[in-house]
Amino acid sequence: MAAILTNDNIAPAVFRMVVVAPEVARSRRAGQFVIVRPGPGGERIPLTIADADPERGTITLIYQVVGKTTAVMSLMDPGAEIADVAGPLGQPTHVERFGRVACVGGGIGIAPLYPIAQAMKAAGNDVTAVLGARTRDLLILEPEMRAVVDRVVVVTDDGSYGAKGFVTDALRGLIDSGERPDLVVAIGPTIMMKMVSLLTKEAGVRTLVSLNTIMVDGTGMCGGCRVTVGGQVKFVCVDGPEFDGHQVDFDEMMKRLRTYRRQEAESYEAFRTRHRCRLMERNAEARG
To answer: N or C: which end of the chain has fewer CB within 10 A?
Structure first.
């Protein structure tokens, strides 16, 4: 059991939960994740460790309410306990002094990108964070990211904050300027990572992508996170979650992501129907 210290609504349908997990906090490295089961008999889901405090023995999990299990988590109050937090799991990010590193995050992907940006900066790299969101209110962790990198570039699809456009527009600007990165790390929606990888492949810039959104079981046993990388079958939870973006078959991955969409939608809708008032109340907190 892992006690919940805080569970704050930081953007519409996005929550930041701090839980007590001392062994995970001491041993986790950037890029790794945990498997969380909110309650007995519930579903197990993978969540990237967004931050950790070894002295307090806590880890920070940032999650978006997209289905029943994350909706259950959003209704858990401080003092409650998560049934299981297993980890750290997955291969940690390979961190060294590359030179210039561009960390590109879209939407909720900014959360797993944050500890990687921290680690890259600590290794002596010049780090630029490119943060993208559909609208200003969906942008997360901007102040936290500004505190750990050299510069931050913000773009929004609708132009409500930062520059109007996509992360690929901002990244192209870096590549074409005197700040051309030696490495790009991209995390976000699958289509965003695909477009970033196409851009960087054309420009000859090494690129890592994190495919954590496709993970299910987190142990390699279920096979749900199969992806093709460089013509070979890989399991994201044990071989990744990070891979060479120029080698990933993103079209295959997007098809696999749709496998259980109907069942997930039905489960979520049934839960929302029973708890609609409380869910609306929690989401209203982020809007003030």
So the answer is: C
Which residue, among 218, 224, 241, has the nearest Cα to 85 in the 3D structure? 218
In 3D space, the residue among 83, 79, 87, 129 whose CA is nearest the CA of residue 109 turns out to be 129
pLDDT digits (tens, 9 = 90+) for 97-139: 999 999 999 999 999 999 999 999 999 999 999 999 999 999 9
Q: How many domains does the chain have?
A: 2
pTM (predicted TM-score): 0.88
Report pLDDT digits (tens) over 147-190. Answer: 999 999 999 999 999 899 999 999 999 999 878 899 999 999 99
Domain membership of residue 43 as a residue range? 2-91+261-278
CA distance linking residue 258 with residue 245, whole number of Å: 21
Q: Is residue 285 part of a domain?
A: no
CATH at residue 34: 2.40.30.10
Q: 125 and 233 in one domain?
A: yes
Looking at the fold, whether 269 and 227 belong to one and the same domain comes out as no
Give the separation between CA 132 and CA 152, rounded to whole angstroms: 11
